[in-house]
Amino acid sequence: MHASSIHLVNALAASDETRDSRSDGAPIASPLDAQSRRRGRRIAISSHPLGMTFSMAFSSHLPTLALVSLGAGEAMVGVQSALGGASLLRLPTLRAVAHVSKRSILIGGQIGALLGVLPLLFFPLLAEWGAQGGAAVESVLASLVVLTCFLAIGDTVWFPLLRSYVEPERIGRFFGTLRTGWHLALIVYFLAARAWLDARPDDYAPLFGLAWLCGLLRVAFIARLPERSERTGERIRIREAFELLRTNRPLRRYLLGVTLSGAVRTSVLPFVLVMMRREIGFEDGQILYTTVALFAGGFVSLYLWGRVVDRVGPAPVFLVSTLGRSLLILALVGMNEPGTGTLIALVGFFFVYSVLLSGFGVADTHVLFGLTPPEAPTRTLVIAAVVATLFASLAPLVTGIVLENLLAAAPMRLVVYHGFFALAALIQLLSFLPLRDFRRAGNER
Prior knowledge:
445 residues, globular, 75% helix
């Protein structure tokens, strides 16, 4: 890492107490006091399981299976996985931060997302309409688009809010604790979902309804979040955020690494599920074991990863995570036939993948917060999220289109999936190269 950023984490801790204005001369609010920071951490940790149950139930494996049950092809699944491209909406939302409280933006995004997915609460009617030739798949995708857009608007300010609560030397432990809670909630939710779908195949409405209630309850929590205001009255220009990419080489390296890794994740995970369902022949209830395993891996490892990252720094964790996930993805080439052994192997894949991905995620956040000024974090955090999410979201869209065309002409469809997984494993391995120099603060490059 550059000398200017090696000691950045420690310097930022001091700057919280000493700066009176930003480098551009605009006035800034005082840091939150210790009691407000503790209250913010407590509310964030207690509310996040509700928010993540809502967002993951409507944006991850469950809607993928719902779309497949309606007859969606690989290209449509790719479109669903590519909806993260709505992160572009964070750029116009960035302008509002100078004039509107971050808490209000977060609440507005949550309420808009709740309204957007109301049609999915009536999934049996959508399925009946689709069976009669109606545009059920397109309607579900439209609801998911609205959801994703409003979640992107709200998420514009989520990390900036958290940035004002966390102490620089405890970033890893805070995010390990924060993410452990919502992983536990999702384990419970998806175990219940698996049991429900075993008894009532393709009956997704109650599952979506429960997640919707969780999202509604979250509003009551986040309305009480403290915030360090960035309402300076000065216009925040989008080009100022993009200027960071030109002037900040460590930020560029960070974004290249996490974007490559994110592209592999968003491409591989949904199409493992499609392969299991269509090519190997597993049922939805069996497939949801893999979803539970995904969250179980995070639950058992996140807190420990937080302590490890704070102790040894991000680079060693990046190495272990990228190398391990590359080998795991390559192992998917050996998945060929249905059976208990294959199901156990795939559940194990998702569990170990999640353990390694959790370490990467904590190290990722540790680096990002170290590159972010505490008095005005939104520019850096927003541009990082937009760049990483946008390019990672394009990957499953391209993957879905390519796979659908290759599968249409392939006499052995599993061979197409195996070739895709081999290529993804190579890209996953290469993603470590831009991240290799992000070491513990105080270490030389």
